Amino acid sequence: MKTFCFCFPVRAGVFLLSILTLGISGLLAAYGWKSFIAQKELLETGVKVAVVLANVSWSLLAIFSLFGFIGACAASLPFVSAYSQMLFWQWFIDLGLTIAYIAVTFKDLKHKFIEKCTTTDGNFLDAVFKDLKKSVDDAVAGKESDPLAVKADAVADPAKQEACESGFKLFVGIAVTVLVLYKLLALYGCVIAHRYVRQLREERTEDRWSSVEKRVDRHDLRIPPPPQQHV
After folding, report:
1. CB neighbourhood size of 47 (10 A)
2. Which of 58, 73, 112, 133 is most buried (CB neighbours < 10 A)?
3. 222: helix, coil or strand?
4. List of residues 6+ apart from 189 with CB closer than 8 A
5. What are 3's strand-pairing partners?
6. Phi, psi at residue 4, to the nearest 5°?
7. 89-102, pLDDT tens digit by residue?
8. Parent domain of 93
């Protein structure tokens, strides 16, 4: 029996992983399609394509996660194999979309971050958290808002510029570290599912050989010894 994390059976890992990916991908797909339908007229063509690809990817992962759950419960090789392959495909698709999103948005995000930082009195993080909370409340109420929006009449303090740029570099470093750890954890989930696929294949092969041996024993098939040659 194959294991993960040194001692846990991979079947239990796929069972828990399929529940986790089913819940997360289902919520992301539902929210993504809802947001896309509400704002598709405001999005540029390139952004529309990226959003549709992401939503399709999450939707397919939710469907195949259900396959993985059923496969783990019933020890079904076709279902678990389909789930494992979808995990790998979704991992690469999500990685590509994440890199593209960062490349497109981080330049504008840097400008907003530094401008917000240099024009905020008091604790910058408290101000950002308050704006984020307001953004969440607006999203629940169906309103649009920008958590890093800056007032038009705000006056930047040049003395804060260097500190704010250093803060943004730290923010990018933390964000990239979290993203790398997340992708490594997701990749390990792919490995767990692949190990269970290998285990099911090995078990199927063993069952076939066991069935052949039982049939041989039942019919008492004995191979006669080769004839002896007389000199």
Report:
1. 15
2. 58
3. coil
4. 17, 21, 87
5. 9
6. -135, 160
7. 989 988 887 887 77
8. 3-101+186-202
